[in-house]
Write a structure and sequence with these properties.
heterotetramer; C: 207 residues; mainly alpha; D: 466 residues; Formate dehydrogenase/DMSO reductase fold; 15 helices
């Protein structure tokens, strides 16, 4: 710059420039995050370490089974439910419904405080006001002497609470409460009580050699699902000696798909089949009634005779003649002497004792309709949704003087009530459940109540103690002290008892005996061109689970449809009616009609359609409202001879012409020769192992690397042409000080055990903060101003996020459109990231967001991923999932955990933001936690010290995880089982997940083998 | 620098003028022409351009840098992807090739700029806008005493215009 | 100044700014090293650690058991300060918190991003001294709570390159001991110890 | 219809043009200057075109902002189809980019005569096509604000990109290609800027052209180094063209997806690129030739020669399709066979048939010389060819991803309104730059045109002696 005056950059300009550049550096340089807080305790509670989980044992109250559950509590709130390994009922397993209780606890739509109906609308009130109104109303009813006509409807549960309720009701001069459960197998309970004297005898699959299931879906939603599935899987794991299952029914349920043979008996023909088996009826009559070849029936009769005391006949029917059929089935067991070997009344499960029949409920509704019920209480039951429209519950309920609801959810029934006194969730309250005649499983709260709710028993105690006349009969102030009062050893013994899975003893107070209402059966099947089967959904039950996004997003184990109702119709019938998948069908029975998209399913008889219960809520919350249709509208208000709701009916099915795509996660249900789900006959197990025997083709993937499960990590793929410089293999060097390379995390999945129940999918959602994407507010924009509000819209675009999915491939019977044949097989394959040694997804990632760790994991680093999605394109298993929207970002419209549901997020796992790829990580946080704990205790990892969430929850114990390089781990032995194979071996990916072939058995009642 | 400038309109006359000037060796000759003409190049008979050396060095530098950065970063933080070697040189050949082309071309351009001495900030002596249009120009830088000889020679070869440049 | 010269200022300015940004991005200036954070109560480590010889785990009791070491509960402080130096204004502030049964809202000084899982217990149990990462904390507050008071500051850059260097080259126990103010004999003895290396692939800290 | 002029005796063959395709209607250097520079004036039609292009570009830009805010979910991606319109448009524009370099570099080495009058427009088209293509890798990734992680810059996290990934090769290939073709264009433009500087009257534009021409003086020293540098740039660009589109094809060939995993991809993509590139040259050159009245520069011989190249590359591409089907059948690998059956009769049969029609059937019309020399037919054919080529990439990307190894994850794909606005935006962006270029810089290389024009000579026949 020239220095003469007036020219060149003046000093002042220069300083200005310097200032500006300095400013930009400063702005960019220092990170201006706001300062975070480090809040200590005032006085730190004993034996709690902030950031380390505590496990509290409690009992699951989602259904009557009463599984033992460990609630993982982190910093004062449960974040996950796991099975209690020591509990005799579920032995460490837990089902999808059990785990989803978390979403019931933190449900954003729960009542947050008491509500009172003032001039027509329910408005929040304080607890004092609510108790005052309750006391005043009770006083009025008792003073006017109408207490004798009160009605208390409680969702059925075993344990001491029913006894307490009856004590309270009796004290107030009110009749005993009705313990109702519309999803329970009422007809089977009635026949069990008649035939074996107990509501639910123990079912021993291990002792059985031939199981006849008359629509008894013991792997779906019938009876005590988890213990049944545990025993079933253990029995089937005996491979050659496994019991054979014959499923007799009009619709092949999940249990049917696991059966060795399906006899598609026409609805109502079961009685004839039983007669044929017992020899009281002719085979020909049974064959014509069931519309099944005569040879099959005679083969069935011969097979039953051959099985002797190994026969286990179960009846799960709900048709008008269900009770009579149940008795005939019991006869079959007795005739073959299998009572005591396969059916054990002595070791009965006490879950269903004391359940009211449907007739009792109808009687109560009629009394309400007659207007002489002054006060009605409802707790956790939702008859407004789960009763046939014919019963007219809503109008009857309207005539009740004062309606009190203890339910904590705004479901259809509590919306009709005048006073809502929200109950604590079972994870927030004390209690117990009876799992055996003398086996009591205690229940303790795992956190301070999330909202301003109180346990019902405490509310009732408060009301009773406020009423001078009966205050003396209730000395204890709250339910806990009531439980402890009569507990041998007082509260200290009670505290230690809480840590036991079950304790001996009976409920504190017994249930009051009640004379069941009995009337002659009045169920009629009505008329129509097709039969309709209405069955409780395996995940949503009859509607209780509808407001939980995990259960809505979990595809139905059979049809793989989520967030929707559907009508199952046989492809042949669909073709005759000119109906394609997704076209709306109207199913009209005498009681009512529903319209839903058609789902061609070859597992129903051509003359039958099937609809699942559970959907169609008009209230209940953002995830359940106007999703699907309520199948109860199809059911008439009829009951069988034991007073239970009879569901079977005839219907006319018509096309409506409009169409909505099925929200399904299934691409194609056929393997197209890819060999993903492999199976072998049980007999072949005796023969030579031809798969892994000879090595005639060197380098053949299926033989070469199977024993060498350890992939050639870091061995140079180009062999000797490798770059000599790459000798420094970093941690992949076996003698690197960290010894990381010595380990090889692997997993085996036994397809012989897996029943396709999808509990592993929900366990993965719960452990790894996987977002649910199907809610109606999570769709994408169809145009700058309109959003796709359909429920399941994202799943229509194939964007579900389940890291592990349950694939259901069919075998056989490919000509389903033209001919009906029941002989097809379904194979279930849990498919997750295979953590391949030669992972195709790793070399294509441009930023090392995915690589192969020395201990055999295919790692996905969320904060390094830029989202090119090439890895998902290159993955032959398609197990990588992408965050299309900010499901994990709180300020997003598509946020997946509306407050307070984000409390259950696992703090050890990153919640992924938008634009990032995610996949199964073999629960790397559990591996780290195990390794950190081992290092803190200065020892090596013990064999089978920890496992992944899916393996832990699996009710079939089909998944085993561990270090395949260390032979003490059980996975190391299983990985070299003769049934072991890798999916897509020919792609040379060296997967770390080894599948064990499914073992098929010849159809027991096939004509050829009779 | 001063010298004589002659503007021609025809190609053959320009070539003859260049050859005579070369024989007469009166001063170094700069020829302006609107485009590349081989006739002029042969008349000038200048040595082959050195740009090719720049290209060679640039290319070799590029390929070695390409390989080096790939292998060094691979070894710096050894992460195995897809069972491939940490420093697997086969894919790195592509990087080597691309960087070879990049550095090769840029060094060629640099070579051209350096040798042709552009970008040129000062205006040049003896340049006339017509030489980028349709005319050829010959500029002979010589002392004043030889200038008249040069002018005569240019006139002889039919230069349209001859003038002295300061 | 000819218009030509004036025009060159703008590209010059841009070049300078770009250079500054790049340099700061690379030189780690984007870490919050040396960050000084004011605290509600002027706590001084020196008298506690150096003079009284209290172990770090007395207050940060979870350093061996959890990912985050946590901080002393108010009860721990009041264990001594119900009697010791109750006249000092800082202790009066502390007692006031204690009387209102209100936790002391300490400000967090060291923060790793939330996609990093930094397990304190793994490092503490491996023998890494606190001072290796938090600097000679025992000297903090030696100048009392007067005007010379300097609160706890972030000693290390806490950025990824700094962690990785320690994992790759290994932690030198004698250097850790020296920083922790251990006697020289211990420091010399530890010199013969091998360097402690650790795994440095991504899944160790990012999952 | 320009007659084919015989080479003028006594004159050395021009540096670049073979004798066969001359521009006899152009007689003098001054005429070249006058006619080429006349194309630079602003016209209302040009302003209208620019306005439309900018509007289209803004549609794309606003779609991008919307997508960055909401996330890629707004696009029509339907797993397993994780790549869609953006990658198809990326390969489409990179493909178009290659013809420019082919014409200006490879044909320069072949001394092809018809190159001279179309190579500048083609080279500019290359630069702008690659600029458009370069945007798409950033648009299609989930976290576009972190795209710089693909570049090996030193950072305090000590992390480097994975050089084994085809996407990092892409970054190197596309950025090298953009740099080299821009340099090649600019070096060729320097002498023309000198001409414009000397002819320009408006002082501001004269100053800008002066700076741009970097003080070029047409001296023999400069021409000598220029010729050598130009030759080497052309030499480097030739393998670069072939390598860049091969690297782009490696994005697919390196994956084991059925339908992608084939070693025919590099030549198949390069032939496709040249094919669609020449089509875009027609789309641009034919209207330009009419509106700028340059018919006597881009004569029908030129169009005839380019038509022969298009015919050739069309047959190569067609042959590649047939080879792919044969290899799939021959390999006996069931996923491959199903894929190719699915490509022509599956869910997107219409896309495959559009591709076959536009890329194989229609170009066969170029066998007839009458059609080869009919500009309006060539222009319509070019539009169809580019539609066909867009669908070729569609047929490669989408059907293969939707029907892969895992039948359970078979799915569909429907582009959303965001995808389409990006496609419109990319054309807007390309034509905006091209229209700006056409009015700021000469659409034909003035200095190279002068090279093939017969220079004035005093004695016509004896010429310079040797």
């Amino acid at each position: 710059m020239s220095t003469e005056a007036g020219s060149g950059v003046k000093r002042r300009d220069f300083l200005k420039i310097l200032g500006a550049t300095g400013a930009t550096t400063a702005v960019v340089g220092c990170s201006s995050e706001k300062v975070g807080k480090l809040i200590p305790y005032v006085t730190s509670p004993d034996n709690t370490v902030a950031g380390v989980s505590q496990f509290y044992a409690t009992t699951c109250k989602e259904c009557a089974t009463g599984c033992g559950v460990l609630a993982e509590v982190r910093d004062g709130r449960p974040i996950k439910l796991e099975g209690n390994p020591a509990h005799p009922v579920n032995r460490g397993a837990i089902c999808a419904t059990g785990m989803s209780a978390m979403q019931g606890l933190y449900n954003p739509d729960r009542y947050r405080q008491p509500m009172l109906r003032e001039n027509g609308t329910l408005s929040p009130v304080t607890w004092d006001r609510a108790l005052e109104v309750l006391g005043q109303k009770l006083g009025e009813v008792k003073s006017r002497g109408g207490a004798g006509n009160a009605v208390f409807l409680n969702a059925h549960e075993s344990g001491s609470l029913p006894g307490f309720l009856d004590q309270w009701l009796e004290a107030n001069g009110m009749p005993a409460h009705l313990s109702i459960d519309s999803a329970a197998p009422a007809a089977t309970i009635a026949t069990n009580r008649a035939a074996y004297g107990v509501a639910w005898p123990a079912i021993d699959f291990n002792a059985a050699s031939l199981i006849l299931s008359f629509s008894a879906d013991f792997l779906d939603a019938w009876g005590h699902r988890v213990p049944q599935q545990l025993d079933w899987a253990d029995a089937r794991a005996k491979l050659e000696g496994a019991p054979k299952l014959v499923y007799i029914g009009a619709r092949r349920s999940l249990t049917g798909l696991n059966a060795d043979q399906w006899i598609p008996a026409k609805a109502g023909s079961e009685m004839a089949i039983c007669n044929a088996i017992l020899g009281q009826g002719t085979v020909a009559a049974a064959a014509t009634a069931a519309d099944v070849p005569e040879a099959t029936i005679s083969a069935l009769v011969a097979a039953v005779r051959g099985a002797g005391s190994g026969v286990l006949a179960l009846c799960g029917m709900t048709s008008p003649d269900a009770v009579e059929c149940g008795q005939m089935v019991a006869e079959i067991n007795k005739a073959n002497g299998s009572v005591g070997t396969t059916i054990k009344p002595a070791a009965a499960h006490a879950g269903y004792e004391g359940m009211a029949s449907y007739l009792d409920l109808v009687d109560a509704v009629e009394r309400m309709a007659a207007g002489n019920v002054p006060i009605a209480f409802v707790r956790n039951a939702n008859p407004a949704h789960s009763m046939p429209a014919g019963a007219g519950f809503a109008d009857a309920f309207a005539k009740v003087g004062f309606k009190v609801s203890f339910s904590s959810y705004p479901d259809e029934t509590s919306e009709l009530c005048d006073l809502i006194v929200p109950d604590n969730h079972w994870l927030e309250s004390w209690g117990d459940a009876m799992v055996g005649a003398d086996q009591r499983s205690l229940q303790q709260p795992t956190l301070e109540p999330v909202f301003d709710t109180r346990s019902t028993a405490d509310v009732l105690l408060a009301a009773a103690r406020a009423d001078g006349t009966i205050a003396s009969r209730f000395p204890q102030a709250d339910y806990r002290s009531w439980l402890i009062a009569n507990f041998a050893g007082g509260s200290s013994a009670f505290a230690t008892a809480l840590t036991q899975p079950t304790i001996a003893g009976s409920p504190v107070a017994a249930r009051a005996t009640r004379t069941a209402v009995s009337r002659p059966a009045n169920a009629a099947t009505g008329e129509g061109n097709m039969f309709v089967v209405v069955y409780p959904s395996a995940t949503l039950g009859d509607g209780v689970g509808a407001n939980k996004p995990w259960l809505q997003e979990l595809p139905d184990p059979v049809t793989k449809i989520a967030w929707q109702s559907w009508v199952e119709i046989h492809p042949m019938t669909a073709k005759q009616m000119g109906v394609k998948e997704g076209e709306h069908l109207t199913v009209k029975t005498a009681a009512g009609e529903i319209t839903a998209p058609a789902y061609p399913y070859m597992g129903v008889r051509p003359d039958t359609v099937a609809v699942a219960l559970g959907q169609g809520h008009t209230a209940y919350g953002r995830f359940a409202q106007n999703v699907g249709v309520n199948a109860y509208n199809l059911v008439a208000n009829g009951w069988d001879s034991a007073g239970n709701l009879a569901i079977g009916a005839m219907a006319t099915v018509t096309r409506t012409g409009d169409h909505s795509p099925l929200v399904t996660t299934e691409g194609s249900a056929r393997q197209h020769g890819r060999g993903i789900a492999q199976a072998m006959m049980a007999a072949a197990l005796a023969g030579p192992d031809e798969d892994h025997g000879h090595h005639d083709i060197p380098g053949l993937a299926s033989q070469e690397f199977l024993p060498g499960l350890k992939s050639p990590v870091a061995a140079d793929a180009q062999g000797e042409m490798a770059n000599p410089l790459s000798k420094d293999k970093g941690q992949y060097n076996p003698d690197h000080p960290t010894k990381a390379e010595a380990r090889r995390w692997a997993m085996t999945i036994d397809l012989a055990r897996c029943t396709g129940c999808s509990a592993c999918v929900t366990a993965c959602y719960s452990e790894n903060n996987i977002p649910t994407v199907g809610a109606s507010y999570q769709g994408r924009a169809l145009s700058p101003v309109t959003w796709d509000e359909r429920p399941g819209a994202n799943i229509l675009k194939g964007r579900e996020m389940a890291w592990i999915r349950l694939e259901r491939y069919y075998e056989g019977n490919t000509n389903t459109e033209n001919e009906f044949s029941p002989d097809f097989e379904a194979r279930f394959v849990p498919m997750m990231c295979q953590h391949c040694g030669n992972a195709p997804c790793e070399p294509v990632c441009p930023v090392y967001a995915t690589y192969h760790s020395p201990d055999g994991l295919n790692v996905q680093v969320y904060n390094r991923c830029v989202g090119t999605r090439y890895c998902s394109n290159n993955c032959p298993y398609k197990v990588r999932y992408y965050n299309w929207f900010g499901y994990g970002e709180t300020d997003r419209r598509q946020y997946a955990w509306p407050e307070p549901m984000h409390w259950m997020l696992n703090p050890d796992v990153t919640v992924r933001g938008k634009g990032v790829m995610e996949k199964c990580t073999f629960c790397v946080q559990r591996i780290r936690e195990g390794e950190n704990r081992a290092r803190s205790e200065e020892r090596e990892l013990n064999a089978d010290e920890f496992t992944t969430a899916c393996a832990q929850a699996c009710p079939s114990k089909a998944i085993v995880f561990g270090d395949a390089a260390d032979e003490n781990w059980s996975v190391a032995k299983l990985a070299y089982d003769r049934r072991a194979y890798h999916v897509f071996e020919e792609l040379n990916t060296y997967t770390a997940v080894v599948y064990l072939k499914k073992v098929n058995h010849p159809a027991p009642a096939a004509p050829a083998t009779a | 620098m001063q010298g004589v400038l002659g503007a021609f309109h025809e190609l053959d006359t320009t070539c003859h003028a260049i050859e005579d000037l070369k024989k007469a060796r009166l001063g170094d000759v700069t020829v302006y022409s609107p485009t590349i003409r081989h006739e002029i190049d042969e008349a000038i008979d200048a040595p082959n351009s050195v740009v090719r050396r720049f290209t060679l060095i640039g290319g070799l530098l590029g390929v070695s840098f390409g390989y080096w950065i790939s292998i060094w970063t691979g070894d710096y933080w050894p992460l195995v992807t897809g069972g491939k070697a940490i420093a697997s040189w086969i894919p790195y050949t592509i990087i080597g090739f691309e960087v070879m082309v990049l550095v090769g071309c840029l060094s060629t351009v640099a070579g051209m700029f350096i040798n042709a001495r552009i970008p040129r900030l000062t205006t040049t002596v003896g340049y006339d806008p017509r030489f980028s249009g349709g005319h050829f120009g010959i500029f002979v830088s010589c002392s004043a005493d030889k200038a008249s000889q040069v002018e005569a020679l240019l006139q002889k070869h039919g230069a349209e215009e001859v003038r002295r440049e300061a | 100044m000819t218009t030509k010269k004036k025009w060159t200022i703008i590209p010059g300015f841009l070049a300078l700014a770009a250079a500054a940004t790049l340099l700061s991005a690379y030189s780690g200036a984007s870490s919050s090293q040396g960050k000084v954070v004011e605290q509600p109560v002027k706590f001084i480590h020196n008298p506690h650690v150096e003079k009284l010889g209290m172990n770090c785990l007395y207050c940060h009791s979870q350093a061996q058991k959890a990912m985050d070491p946590g901080n002393a509960s108010v009860a721990t402080c009041m264990g001594c300060h119900t009697l010791v130096k109750t006249d000092s204004p800082e202790i009066q502030k502390l007692t006031e918190y204690w009387n209102n049964k209100e936790p002391i809202p300490w400000n967090r000084v060291h923060k790793v991003p939330d996609y990093v899982q930094f397990p304190h217990m793994r490092h503490v149990n491996a023998g890494v001294t606190c001072q290796s990462c938090h600097g000679e904390i025992q000297k903090q507050g030696a100048a009392g709570v007067g005007d010379g008071y300097k609160p706890v500051e972030q000693y290390a850059s806490l950025n990824m390159g700094w962690c990785i260097n320690c994992h790759v080259q290994g932690y030198n126990p004698s250097e850790g001991a020296r920083l922790a103010g251990m006697p020289d004999s211990v420091v010399q003895a530890l010199k013969s110890e091998p360097v402690k290396k650790a795994r440095y692939d991504c899944a160790v800290c990012h999952y | 219809m320009g007659t084919i002029a015989q080479p003028v005796d006594g004159l050395r063959r021009p540096n670049i043009a073979s004798a066969d395709v001359q521009i006899p209607a152009v007689t003098s250097y001054e005429q070249v200057d006058r006619e080429i520079i006349s194309t630079l004036g602003f016209t209302k039609k040009w302003l209208l075109g620019l306005g439309v292009a900018i509007l289209a570009m803004l549609v794309g830009a606003s779609a991008w902002i919307y997508q960055i805010y909401w996330g890629l979910g707004q696009a029509g991606y339907e797993p397993p189809v994780m790549w869609g319109v953006y990658i198809i448009t990326f390969v489409f524009w990179v493909g178009i980019g290659h013809a420019g370099t082919l014409i200006s570099a490879i044909l320069y080495l072949f001394r092809a005569g018809f190159r001279t009058s179309i190579y500048r427009a083609a080279e500019a088209m290359t630069v702008f096509a690659v600029m458009t293509a370069g945007l798409f890798p950033i648009i299609h990734i989930g976290r576009p604000w972190k795209f710089f992680w693909l570049i090996p810059y030193p950072n305090w996290r000590l992390l480097w990109p994975n050089f084994k990934s085809p996407l990092v090769w892409d970054v190197f290939a596309i950025s090298t290609y953009l740099t080299i073709s821009t340099t090649f264009l600019y070096i060729g433009l320097i002498p023309d800027f000198a001409v414009l500087r000397d002819r320009e009257t408006n002082p501001m534009r004269k100053r800008i052209y002066g700076i741009l021409s970097m003080g070029w003086r047409n001296s023999d020293r400069e021409w000598r180094h220029f010729a050598k540098a130009y030759l080497f740039l052309a030499a480097f660009s030739t393998p670069l063209v072939l390598s860049v589109h091969s690297v782009v094809s490696f994005d697919f060939a390196m994956a084991l997806t059925p339908g992608w995993h084939a070693s025919i991809f590099p030549p198949y993509f390069v032939a496709g690129a040249i094919f669609s590139g020449f089509a875009m040259v027609w789309t641009i050159a034919i209207p330009m030739r009419k509106w700028f009245k340059l018919e006597h520069y881009i004569t029908l011989n030129h169009l005839d020669a380019t038509a022969k190249v298009v015919l050739f590359t069309s047959m190569v591409v067609g042959c590649a399709y047939l080879i792919e089907f044969f290899i799939a059948w021959y390999s006996g690998v069931r996923p491959e066979q199903e894929f190719f059956w699915n490509r022509v009769f599956g869910q997107w049969w219409w896309a495959a048939w559009i591709m076959l029609l536009c890329n194989m059937a229609l170009p066969m019309s170029l066998w007839s010389q009458k059609l080869r020399r009919n500009p309006t037919w060539l222009w319509f054919l070019s539009i169809f060819i580019n539609i066909g080529m867009w669908y070729e990439r569609f047929v490669i990307v989408v059907p293969s991803l939707s029907h892969e190894f895992e039948p359970w994850q078979w799915g569909g794909y429907t582009p959303s309104w965001i995808d389409m606005s990006f496609l419109v935006g990319s054309f807007g962006w390309f034509f905006m730059w091209f229209l700006l270029f056409v009015k700021q810089m000469p659409v034909m290389a003035i200095m190279e045109l002068k090279e093939i024009v017969v220079p004035k000579r005093k004695h016509a026949h004896d010429g310079g002696h040797h």
